[in-house]
Amino acid sequence: MTRAESRLFARILANDLRLYFRAWDKRKRGMAFTLLIQALIVGFLHLQLPALFAEIARSGNARGGAGLACAFVLLFTLMAGLHRSLEVLYNRGDLPYLLSSPVPSRLVILSRLADVLATTAFTTLFVVLPMLNCAVYLFGPHWLWGWPAWITAVALVSTLALVMTIRLVTWIGARGARTLVQVLGILVGSAAILAMQVPNWLERLNRQGEQTERIQRYFAAFETPPLPQLAAAASGAWIPLLTLAIAGAAAVWLTLRVLEREFVSGAQRAAEDAGGRTSPGSGDPAVLARAWRQSFRGGRWSALVRKELRTLRRDPLLIARSSTQLISFLPAIIGMAFLPRVAAVGILGVLLPAMTAVTTASLMSAFDESLEIVCASPVSRVRAMWARTTAAALPSALLGWIGAGVLLGFGAPHVAWLTGALATFLALALAWLGGCTTPRLSAEDRAANRPARAAWQVFIAMLVSGVGSAAVATQAMGASWLVAVPLAAITLVGGGLMFVAQPRPIWAD
Asked: Which residues lie closer than 8 Å to 31 by C-beta, 6 or more apart?
């Protein structure tokens, strides 16, 4: 790379990173608030992880515990890498301009790869920092080698995520790749959360002395290669650390070689419109006329709901951004490690639908690009917002009923029905609140991928769903209905107040 190309690469990468940090919020006050929230989460993890690590060490499962931590970091890094690859390759408006400019394609490839590597490392830093600090404090300074091990692991996993994204686009097209990457991100995040909760569930199964054996078998699963080797590399073993460094460097080099051949066509497909292939016979006037007539046979309400669901399905970022809400539950998951499994599942069955619903509805309103069309239609704004609320609440409420199904399997039918009912009600109420009150972003903000301004809506959702989860937890732990019923009533009243909100006036956006 010549000196001129180096300067050009540095300029492109600096602009990419500027867009990443600018997306947090264009106001310094918003950036400071975001950093404060992240700092509080990191501080909370610093308080909770030492007790968890010490308990694992006392139980004689230190090796498996280190493997579990490595598996968690790898899953978290993979999810972050997939999400960043989706953002960089699928929603970056400057990609077609760069490909058609005199900039060498290898610089575009290198800048995109460096963007994914840097932002993935920064995203995972909030989890890795408290883990390594607590490991150094409890088990010795040799765990400082975890920092170079983490950097090389990020290089390895991020390049794998980037290649997976490009390959998916080549194999199944841009729309299919978007959907599959979103599903993979949700599954990976859910798997990481479940892995942290399983030891607590096993600890509660104290049947005829089987508790210790079950826990040991669980942690023994994390002594399967390559997890022990990764843990050894993080603790300073030279051979595993050197092998990991070579693997990370080789992955970056091979990714550059592969993408130099396929990046242009893959990126063009990634940047194309979400239309997809036309079906056979779609050019036939009779087929088009029949499809046109069938589109208007349903009622207005079903058409509105289908439109909102279609928007949610086709938008490549709404589901991905909503799924990252799972990350914010990490401190809560660690805090629930000391609760019975029925209570833990019930709490998640209420919290996850509530937070996902308000996030999804807020994003749908913030990134609404068809507001002028809606305003020009004869449909009232309230009716249109109810359709959006329904579309945002349906998949969120499904999470609650999945948790209710798990609770039925645990033999807790009353807790299951309470969890499903509260999850459905809160999903509707908070989706209405988020959709009505979140301001629409300007065209400049939408182009820069800035987050929706919905901090107070999320805060209210946390308060209301927190009371609802307390009602479920008290019932799950055998408390009297005299305790659970008032808490459930407060949740219903608080959720009902959400419906007092009215859609924002047209001129306000």
From this structure: 21, 24, 25
Give CA 508 to chain center in angstroms. Answer: 30
- Rounded to 5 degrees, φ, ψ at 339 are -100, 160
Between CA 387 and CA 400 the distance in angstroms is 20
Q: Supply 167's token pair.
A: 């390959």
30-87 per-position pLDDT tens digit: 566 667 777 887 887 788 778 777 777 776 767 777 888 888 888 888 878 877 887 7
* Spatial separation of the C-alpha atoms in residues 504 and 490, rounded to whole Å: 27
Q: What is the amino acid identity at position 150?
A: W
**Inter-residue contact 173 to 268 (CB < 8 Å):** no
> Among 228, 261, 226, which residue's Cα sits nearest to residue 247?
226
Distances (CA, A) of 236 to 139, 240, 244: 13, 8, 12
Question: Which amino acid does the sequence have at 286?
Answer: A
Tell me phi and psi for residue 280, to 5 degrees.
-60, 135
Read off the pTM: 0.57
**Taking phi first (over 0 means left), then psi (-120 to 50 degrees means alpha), and beta for anything else, what does residue 505 get?**
beta
